[in-house]
User: What shape does this take?
Amino acid sequence: MSSIQRRLSFGLLGVLLVVGLIVAQGSLWLADLGLRRYLEGSLRYDTESLLAAMVRGPQGIQLDEQRLMASYQRPFSGHYFRIDFDSQSWRSRSLWDHELPAPGQTGLQKALGDGPDGQLLLVYRVDYRRFGQPIRITVARDYSPALNSLRGFQWLMLGVGGGALLLILFLQRLIVRRALLPLERTRQQIEQLEEGQRTVLDSSVPLELEPLVRQINHLLTHTEETLKRSRNALGNLGHALKTPLAVLLSLAERDELKAHPELHESLRQQLAFIEQRLGRELGRARLAGEPLPGAYFNCDEELPGLFETLAMIHNRGLQLDWQAPLGLRLPYDREDLLELLGNLLDNACKWARRRVRLSIEVDEGGYRLLVDDDGPGVNAEQREEILCRGTRLDEQVAGHGLGLGIVRDIVESWRGRLLLQDSPLGGLQVRVELPRDLSRSRRAGQ
Amino acid sequence: MRLLLVEDHVPLADELLAGLGRQGYAVDWLADGRDAAYQGATEPYDLIILDLGLPGKPGLEVLREWRAAGLATPVLILTARGSWAERIDGLKAGADDYLTKPFHPEELQLRIQALLRRAHGMANQPCLEAAGLQLDEARQCVSQRGREIDLTAAEFRLLRYFMLHPGQILSKSHLAEHLYDGESERDSNVIEVHVNHLRRKLGREVIETRRGQGYRFHGVAG
Assistant: This one.
């Protein structure tokens, strides 16, 4: 789907990972710190108890076994002490054969000390003075269980955090997709616009998209109106020039002029030249050219009218028929396509004996327009010449020349191909091949 | 045959009036769309030549009004707007033929003849034939059993009208309405004179007189 979605997912993932790690690590660190503080108090109390257990006995200073905690007696119990005074050093029985090194300074030691049986010890040292001499008491407690439970907690957090991350990403994807739905809808509509399936974009869109859609719709109507205006202006120009030309043609046929054959002939030729040139250039100027978004030609609506017109013009019992897929809409300007088909069919009607057929076919690659007649046909050598003649104004012959000229202009502006072939009906087949997606082929061509 | 020409370009209208007059048509000329919409619907024309770019009211709108009011007179559109889209619009509005400017005078003449024949159910005939007579409209003469007979302009007009309406009873006033334009003096005695001339040239039985009703064209075979 859209890259906005991917970008949002990546962004969210990054932020959540960084924040999650900081929070998880920070909370672990705080728990560790809290636990050590708590134990520090407890260890201090232990040293005080030990100090109180030191009594002056018959052999000098000794430890009152009664007042010691039982866990000092059980080996590897996790509670240890060491008392240094007067070059003597007492160790708790629980240490067994392990030496508990006396730390260099008083208070809780930052680093954990090695204990017996692979234990990690929290070591606390206090210096006292009693019986007139300095006494250094070091107590230690096994911190491994706490560390283990902290590590367990860490794994739990990792699991819960990861799960939450996945859930958040999934929900975010859903939300973003929902939020981007109007954008996707607009994108589809623009595609339909290019294919001629619609003429305007739906204007009921979210606030953020509204100006865009409005501007596109405005541009569409603007181009359409500009085209209409310029066609109208060309129509007026044509009217203004062709009406006097009709007068001149009529005057040229007067008997007074016919008395001077040379003058008459020259006048006729020049008038014919003006007429052709005018017709061709005005016809060309009218073309919309490259298909505009939103332009379309509805076969079922337009072709019957075109065929009725042809039947009216060629009123000699010709059998005219057309076939196209039901409901076909071609993404081309209506007037351009009518001009193209009108000229091709008009030519076919001029030459046909009995039948003229138009077939419109659609496939993956594009559209094919086939105009068949059962007339005399055109042999292979002349076909090229006929196609070229459309471009050379001075060689135009009424019939094939002018009509095919404008047809060529239209087909070229649509980047299509115009071919002349043998028709299955016996005469000439004019084949127009039009690529389906102009914008895509244009992009590929760049 | 009485024609209505609606064209706002005066020089072209002059040319057309002169040319059509030479071909034996009685032509009324209007330049404004509003006048045309009214007069076309009220006067009994046989054919109307209509320009599309008219002052007052666009030609296509005039045509649509006529058709909506049930006017069946054949209409030939004469216009500089020659694109296929416009031709189709013209046909949909109810035109019977479409000629684009500039055109050759003979082309217009042929289109008018073809359209009149078609309107009277005689489509696809190279020349006007009725009841054993063949009328050459270009040379304004008639052939009867291979014999060519010259006609005066007035006789030609009258015979053409009869040949386009074979077997129908045509009153003198009807004939006068269709043979003379709106500005001519209509004298039914003149028609009687021309009918007699035609009978003398083609034979008595060609045109039958129905007392109190008018004339009926039988032709030589009928």
Notes: The interface with chain A takes residues 9, 11-12, 15-16, 19, 53, 79-88, 91-92, 96-98, 100-106, 114, 118, 123-124 of chain B (CB under 8 Å). The radius of gyration of chain B is 18 Å. The mean pLDDT of chain B is 86.
